[in-house]
Amino acid sequence: MNLPAGSPDPGAGSCSPNGPRRAARAVMKTLFRILRYLKAESRLVTAGLAASLLFIGTTVVMPQVMRDLVDQVFVGHRMERLSVLALVIVGLAVLRGGLLFAQIYCAEMLAQRVLRTMRNQLLSHLQRLEFGFFDGMPTGQIIARITSDIDSMRRFLGFALSQMIVNVLLFLGVLLMCLHMHPKLALLALGTAPFISLSAYRFGRRIGPAFRGIREQVASVTTVLQENIAGVRVVKAYVRERHEIEKFVNEAVTLLERNVGAARLWSFYFPLMDFIAAGGTLAILWYGGGEVIRGHLTLGEFVAFEAYFMLMSWPIMALGFVISMTQGAVVAGGRIFELIDREPAICTKPGARTLPDMAGRVEFRDVTFAYPGREDSPAVTDLSLAVEPGQTVAVIGPTGCGKSSVVNLIPRFYDVTQGAVLVDGTDVRELDLESLRRSVGIVLQDTFLFSASLRDNIALGRPDATDDEVRAAARQAAVAPFAEKLEKAYDTEVGERGTQLSGGERQRVAIARALLLDPKILILDDCTSSVDVETEAVIQQALRILMEGRTTFIIAQRLSTLRTADLVVVLKDGRIVQQGSHEELLQAGGFYAEMLQVHLQTQEAVEGGV
């Protein structure tokens, strides 16, 4: 059942008895799912468990050695036993140190390998998700889940999980030894366990929501930081530094407050545990001391029992620490699995076709399209258009009329709401997605280059391309003249987003990238609108080479583009209002002629300095 936004979950409130049970089931489900990742690392798990068991064994033996030391040496004055027992203590200490090292090493290695698998799985799944997902989720939120949430998982798998196992086994081992030594005293020592367990349970109930709030706020801080760094040029251009600082400080203060709230819970929990444990120590001193005086217990046994009580108290006291880390991991795991479990809305269907000999015919058949979450305001409405192989189509219209939305439907970045988009007579939803997109080349106005070499950026769509093929594409796209002047030529790093290159150079790299891909369908998104006249001439020459023999869709306002197009499609409010050649539309008048007139007047005004 889908609830309206802002509606309370009927099972989530504290008044509903199902709320806590449902939350507990969700926690256990997430926890067991995290633990399933351990199956692939069975050797490390086995080695870690073996080291833990041996470590527990040496820990349980140590108080018995202390018992013999007190009874035989300090009370019995058998000095010949001192050196033997001292060597035993040293040997046990060395052995415990080695076993502890092995335990920690195995736990950390296990955590790192599991998290490597989880990161790879998460990033791989993100690559399969549709554009609509990224439209609706800020980049900072995604980054926070890959970084901060993964780090919470590392703390759980690398420390809390091993501590949980060791503490449970240590508690049971010590309890058995205490019951063997003095059952009544053991039961008295256990008298504090219910109070500590209840406190740990209540602590866990409160620390879980606190960690959830922290994780969400970390994502908010990351989002603000990511946007600020990505948009630093805009921030400086509009003198918004102070506003951005205030925005970040506000988010950081909220994060601080939530962390302080969690720390307040911590600072209250451990003194309480220490106070309860002190009560247990007092009870052992009172009753155990009496047993020693009455001769029912030796002094060495009493010392050993007190040591066992301290060993038994720590696992119970550490329960809250383990619970908090586990709660943090469960919250983080839930956020990670939320992404992993999201089914891609756009994917290749079973039995999908490929078009090895694609001709490049494109047809829009009664297409209506609305972006996810905006179904009431379609970006494209009742659009029908047929484009023959090799034709050049110029798509024109005012801002927000649906130009980019139309061309984004061809490589199936989005799925139509109604109707169909067909390539060579086949609905794109019936085609293999990878095969379809390899047949569609795209050159955008805002070209994105990766922080890699110039060669790698050109060969992005064909990483297996030979050096000669890359250079040939570069020559055709007019990349070679500036590439050969670079210090390392095609091996030069272009910087983040291609910052080492000019806007025109980045456009030419994008054209070379498309040439190397050799697509049958080409989409050019106003890719010469932001360059100077000289650079535009170079790019236009490269584009003419690129467009030869290819079905081409151009989103542009340039008159030269409109004149050379085989078909001009005029959009208004997501609908086709006119279509035909440039000359036909001029003669017909109407919206196209009006737009062109306004464009020419604006251009004359700019050139005239008005």
Quick recap of the structure?
It is built from 21 helices and 10 strands. With 610 residues, it is α/β, with parallel strands linked by helices.
3D architecture notes:
- With 610 residues, the chain is an alpha/beta fold.
- The chain folds into 3 domains: 27-340, ABC transporter transmembrane region fold (Up-down Bundle), CATH 1.20.1560; 358-439 and 521-610, Rossmann fold; 447-518, Rossmann fold.
- It has 21 helices and 10 strands.
- Strand 7, helix 18 (533-547) and strand 8 form a beta-alpha-beta unit.
- The chain is elongated, with a radius of gyration of 35 Å.
- Residues 1-17 have low confidence and may be disordered.
Q: Which descriptors would you attach to this protein?
A:
610 residues; Rossmann fold; six-stranded mixed beta sheet; four-stranded antiparallel beta sheet; 64% helix; elongated
Number of strands: 10
Strand content: 5-15%
CATH-assigned homologous superfamily of the largest domain = ABC transporter type 1, transmembrane domain
Tally the structural domains.
Answer: 3
Give the arrangement of secondary structure elements:
Layout: H1 18-36, H2 42-75, H3 80-128, H4 131-136, H5 139-181, H6 183-189, H7 193-230, H8 232-237, H9 241-294, H10 299-317, H11 319-340, E1 362-369, E2 380-387, E3 392-396, H12 403-408, E4 418-423, E5 426-427, H13 433-438, E6 440-443, H14 454-458, H15 467-476, H16 480-483, H17 503-517, E7 521-525, H18 533-547, E8 551-555, H19 559-564, E9 567-572, E10 575-580, H20 582-588, H21 591-607
Parallel strand pairs: 3-8, 3-9, 6-7, 7-8
Antiparallel strand pairs: 1-2, 1-4, 4-5, 9-10
Helix pairs in contact: 1-11, 2-3, 2-5, 2-10, 3-5, 3-11, 5-6, 5-7, 5-10, 5-11, 7-9, 7-11, 9-10, 15-17, 17-18
